[in-house]
Amino acid sequence: MHIVVCIKQVPDSAQIRVHPVTNTIMRQGVPAIINPFDLAAIEEALQLKDRYGARVTVLTMGPPQAEAALRKAIAYGADDVVLLTDRAFAGADTLATSFALAQAIRKLGEEEAVDLVMTGKQTIDGDTAQVGPGIAKRLDLQLLTYVSEITDLDLSAGKITVQRRSEGGVQVIKTRLPALITMLESSNTIRFASMPNMFRAERQVVPQWNRDRAGIEDASKIGLKGSPTVVSKIFTPRPSSQRAKMVGADLDATGVANAVLDVLSSDHPRFAREIGLVTP
Amino acid sequence: MTEKFDAIVVGAGPAGNAAAYTLASAGLDVLQLERGETPGTKNVQGAILYSDALERIIPDFRNDAPLERHVIEQRMWVLDEDSFIGTSYRSDAFNSESPNRYTILRAPFDKWFSEKVRAAGALVICETTVTELLQENGRVVGVRTDREDGDIYADVVILADGVNSLLAKKAGFHGELDPKNVALAVKEIHFLSEEIIQSRFNIKGNEGVVIEIAGAVTHGMVGTAFLYTNRESITLGIGCLLSDFKKSGVAPYTLLEELKNHPAIIPLIEGGEMKEYAAHLIPEGGYKAVPRLYGEGWMIAGDSAGLVNAVHREGSNLAMTSGRLAAETVISLKGKGLPCTQANLGIYKAALDGSFVMKDLKKYRQLPEILHGNPHFFSVYPQLLNRAAHTMLTVDGEDKHSKEKTVRNSFVEHRSLFGLVGDAFRMWRATR
Asked: Which residues contact residue B372 at a Cβ distance below 8 angstroms, ignoring those fewer than 6 apart?
């Protein structure tokens, strides 16, 4: 079994400080860590390795200094690592990032077919939770997001069973491999590296893949060029001062719907007109 | 899979880094183990860097080491409740091409030093605690770490694991630290703009000022305080003997708070934002408290060996020098194809004895006992000195002869003529 874990090196947001004199964010000296959600993905992959036997390859895209995150991954027990790094990747949004990572995973699959791709549910610096699903879509993998536990893996049948958190409950889902799983942070705790792995982490060569090595021909899909996302404005959302209203608690479904419509048309006449609730 | 190295260095402070750097530069296969997340995260110092000791290890350190300010002025203040009497020495000669002392912040400095150690070829592994020394037939043959499959072997182990060296204690190389021989120091870093620091201390560019402080702020305990100017911050700290803290029941942070609220200090740190607080033990037992420094397959350096000159507030330079000398001992033995036996490692002790490290400690060997036995050095004298100055500098119609007599009488009254002469003699003997 071949598991590819996608990770990201992020600034430790808990340790970001504001410069006391200039009031600017002090990026310098803020330690870079492995995104905590991704650590859960690494640990889950290593547990699968312990249980079923697997080759775990950890992949990241980032600047050359992201190598430190991959060395940590080796210390935890990853067999192989790949650092996807190229100036052409710079400025990538989640669309371009998932494209580049998907290409690299495809390339890794040429060496040994990939059964499972794992990653954290989101990063703590971007918070989008889009890259994992983006990879799954591009590689046509079964997508399992917000997974808290992998309960079973049947390699011969090519089936995996997981628990995933959903609104108001836990879903138990069984699907076929290959699949992509995004892990919740709280699902496990990263292991304490063994001494031999600590040595291996210091000594193992970290392969750096540029665009060509990752087999990316279309430069318009990576980096800034491949990133349609534009951040037009950043602001602090203001908390709403409006109070919530309870309507139709003792009514049936139709009654509740009618009560909601009444509130909408009286409190938000413009919205009601726009959706055609009331004719102007 | 058993790992074996020429040498293992435990700890990545000044002593450990000096040792690992020197060993690796000589082409030896060296492993350095550090328990902190990165080198420097566990290390605390005032901090003053003494150029000479580092220059002998990395001659061109000024090119890229993160230095704060070079010291051009040293003030010595003796405080009473609301006054101080002091001296200062300031010289433009300290603005030379290669200044003699710098203020530093240890976190960035240690990171830099460690990068040099790695670049020299040492294998540096962090987040790994050495739990004990591996011994075979009375000989240290390696270390055991807190990790799975954590035994690592080496021809020699250099212990640079800091004050309160648990490893040396566990191996029976020295006993429990005596509270009389350890100071507990606390410090704070207050951020202020470069311009404010420059104007408050009458300095320009990267010039810096050091203030050493004694007197009322220690509540009569054996100890001193300090203020260092960094580039964009001021470090303020105070330390006293652990045994005195125990006896007085005064909390260290209380002393620091009082120091910060002393009329002589308030205007210097006003408007600053406190960003860091740290506490650390300092081995101040001096010459007589230095433990065995080497044995079969091991040497000990820096704070873990108690190599601190408390009188002159020197420690990191003794640490770097001892680390370097320990490494040079190994290099010399390896060059001759000799094993690191106790007999052969004796040259480490000889090298230390021949250096300023042991010579300085020996010079002040009597001092700790004298200070323990004479607490009035830290209570009565500061008060008398301040009152004498106050009397002499107050013009109130009283003639100078009478004023001198008042001052003289106040000294005799508080300390007796016999006591004064005795103190003078003891101090002379302890520091000659």
From this structure: B180, B222, B241
Which pLDDT score is estimated for A249?
74
Question: Alpha helices of chain A — where are they, by DSSP H?
Answer: 36-52, 67-76, 94-111, 131-139, 195-203, 253-267, 269-274
Question: Rounded to an integer, what distance in angstroms lies between the CA atom of residue B227 and that of residue B238?
Answer: 9
Which listed CATH number (3.20.20.370, 3.40.630.30, 3.30.9.90, 3.40.50.300) goes with B180-283? 3.30.9.90
The token pair that represents B26 in the structure block = 């000589």
Are A31 and B128 an interchain contact pair (Cβ–Cβ within 8 Å)? no
Best to test chain B binding among A198, A199, A200, A204 (most B CBs inside 10 Å) = A198
**Would you say residue A229 lies in a domain?**
no
Nearest CA-CA partner of B139 in B304, B350, B344: B344
Do A84 and A59 contact (CB within 8 A), yes or no? yes
Return mean pLDDT, chain B. 93
Q: Give the tokens for residue A7.
A: 């990770």
pLDDT range class, residue A23, cuts 50, 70, 90: low
Query: Is A271 at the interface with chain B, CB within 8 A?
Result: no
Helix (H, G, I), strand (E, B) or coil at B212: strand
ipTM value: 0.86
Q: Which residue of B has its CA nearest to A196?
A: B149
Terminal-residue alpha carbon distance, chain B: 56
| Distance from C-alpha of B45 to C-alpha of B216, rounded to nearest angstrom | 23
Q: Which domain holds residue A265?
A: 235-280
Q: Pick the residue with more confidence: B323 or A186?
A: B323
- CATH architecture for residues B3-66+104-174+289-354: 3-Layer(bba) Sandwich (3.50)
Amino acid letter, B16: G
Q: Is residue A132 within 8 Å of A182, Cβ to Cβ?
A: yes
Q: Are residues A98 and A133 in the same domain?
A: yes
Are A113 and A248 contained in the same domain?
no
Residues A239 and A217 both lie in one domain: no
Question: How sure is the predictor about B297, in pLDDT bands with cuts at 50, 70 and 90?
Answer: very high
Whole-structure pTM value: 0.87
| Residues A253, A169 share a domain | no
* Residue A35 to chain B, least CA–CA distance (Å): 17
Shared-domain flag, residues A280 and A172: no
Domain boundary among the residues A221, A248, A270 is at A221
Whether B252 shows a pLDDT value over 60: the answer reads yes
Answer for the pair B316, B106: CB distance below 8 angstroms, yes or no.
no
Q: Are residues A138 and A242 in the same domain?
A: no
Number of domains observed in the structure of chain A: 2
The DSSP-derived string for B113-177 is HHHHHHHTT-EEE-S--EEEEEEETTEEEEEEESSTT-EEEEEEEEE---SS-HHHHHTTSS-PP
Burial A42-55 (b: 16+ CB within 10 A, else e): bbbbbebbeeeebb
Contact list, B131 vs chain A (CB under 8 Å)? none
- The residue extents of the domains of chain B are 3-66+104-174+289-354, 180-283, 373-431
